[in-house]
Amino acid sequence: xxxxxxxxxxxxxxxxxxxxxxxxxxxxxxxxxxxxxxxxxxxxxxxxxxxxxxxxxxxxxxxxxxxxxxxxxxxxxxxxxxxxxxxxxxxxxxxxxxxxxxxxxxxxxxxxxxxxxxxxxxxxxxxxxxxxxxxxxxxxxxxxxxxxxxxxxxxxxxxxxxxxxxxxxxxxxxxxxxxxxxxxxxxxxxxxxxxxxxxxxxxxxxxxxxxxxxxxxxxxxxxxxxxxxxxxxxxxxxxxxxxxxxxxxxxxxxxxxxxxxxxxxxxxxxxxxxxxxxxxxxxxxxxxxxxxxxxxxxxxxxxxxxxxxxxxxxxxxxxxxxxxxxxxxxxxxxxxxxxxxxxxxxxxxxxxxxxxxxxxxxxxxxxxxxxxxxxxxxxxxxxxxxxxxxxxxxxxxxxxxxxxxxxxxxxxxxxxxxxxxxxxxxxxxxxxxxxxxxxxxxxxxxxxxxxxxxxxxxxx
Amino acid sequence: xxxxxxxxxxxxxxxxxxxxxxxxxxxxxxxxxxxxxxxxxxxxxxxxxxxxxxxxxxxxxxxxxxxxxxxxxxxxxxxxxxxxxxxxxxxx
Amino acid sequence: xxxxxxxxxxxxxxxxxxxxxxxxxxxxxxxxxxxxxxxxxxxxxxxxxxxxxxxxxxxxxxxxxxxxx
Lengths: 460, 92, 69
Fold this sequence. Notes:
The complex is a heterotrimer.
Chain A: E1 9-14, H1 19-33, E2 37-42, E3 54-56, H2 61-65, E4 70-71, E5 73-78, E6 81-87, E7 89-90, H3 91-98, E8 110-111, E9 114-115, H4 123-131, E10 140-144, H5 149-155, H6 169-176, E11 186-190, E12 195-198, H7 199-209, H8 216-226, H9 233-238, E13 244-250, H10 253-257, H11 271-286, E14 308-311, H12 322-325, E15 334-347, H13 354-369, E16 380-384, H14 386-394, H15 399-411, E17 425-429, E18 437-443, E19 454-457
Helix pairs in contact in A: 4-6, 6-7, 7-11, 8-11, 13-15
Chain B: E1 2-6, E2 30-35, H1 41-54, E3 58-63, H2 73-82, E4 85-91
Parallel strand pairs in B: 2-3, 2-4
Chain C: H1 2-6, E1 11-16, H2 20-30, E2 35-39, H3 48-67
Parallel strand pairs in C: 1-2
């Protein structure tokens, strides 16, 4: 590979896989034969065009530096400065640049070119990282073969215990390209240390958690929600009760990024579900300094502390979405964060009516409230799967009716103290359609004295 | 072949800080007791307050609204203006 | 603790002795080593007399922490 670009003359960039480059191969040969060509670069095959002195640009460095977007591109350079450029094949333009008037006899007057390989997804960020000005400010660690980045990251304590994806500049740039915020924009102070979280650090940790770049706007919305004082993230990260963060997603972004709302929705198997909330865990550890046994005093913890993210099932228009119930305009994407201490499945095989379901849930919620010294104080996120929802719907119930009935049932017939304040009982729909199940996601401390759910719109 | 990794951690939030010096004696001074609102912590603070009083130390009581969140700035300001020293607890 | 210290007021934290490692981590993260008096664990399940005992155990250390230069 030669990265010395000539300072004077004609420079041509081509690739064999492009039909227009095939078309103009005789013109390239003609230019070289006349001594008019200072250099020719091939992006894919250094033996193309055959028989010419071709420079190998399979690393795409020259293409990147010359900002090639289309091949073929013919450039006139004078004293190291580009003076003119033709993109694709145009006899008129090529003749003008080459100062010749008889190029390409027998060829059509013009033919559009093909996309440059340096513009392919993935390559653009890689080239930016290798040869460009990245603007990234974080310290870097250079590992030489055979050092294994996965082992090094583990040794440095950058992980939640599972392997993390190496945050290379190219991956981080690709993630940063998914948002309009500047790299150094401060998103907030991360507990427990209170260290500032920049968009760049968020992107690094998102990469490490395994997020595809397209998930990043959802991660940013979840972070903004978690940093709301109402959410009490610091408390969730310190409590002996062991609290994790659940992220429930609504809106068009669900399909765009491939979030699961169906089978095994609270389990494994889908990358977006597995990595978005995990990013918050890594940020709390890497930026905030939260460590189990350090400031994280979880006595037992629970599997959901790895982070839980899922999409609400929005397939039935009769169901008001969680986001809509919390003031987000229909058709917008949003996240709701919920601090939680575990999940418990409910199975009511004999349920036939909405009232049956409310009675069963009341008993379970009552039992679950016994884990506290006071009966009150823990919020609940109830996840209703398909068959339960069918029963409710056939009874003519909607979200508001379900929430009100559960509130009344857990308050008791004579009035008494309600188990839930308004807003402490959230209901969502997810899971597959077969199976008479719901899952109770147990909150931590609810209300203004504890951790309140927070909803934020995802920036489009 | 070189792999470049970007550091995911924050630089230290602030340089190391020396804590302010204590008083020569608490005689004639006011000590604030800040209840962080963990269960039973108030009872320990009640007894501690009484024991300090028996030694001629003036006291004042303050509380965070909830242990789950940092103390609001207004509470800190009030303590700093009214007290010469502070006891905060009880974290368990 | 850091907030109060920044106002120039000496302060001491009462912490369960089970949480000593948590204090060490907190100090490391904040670059600040607070004055701490440890209280024997547990606290939450104790009765009134036992809680009074805990207060008596620590009162001298608390005064000491606030009067140390």
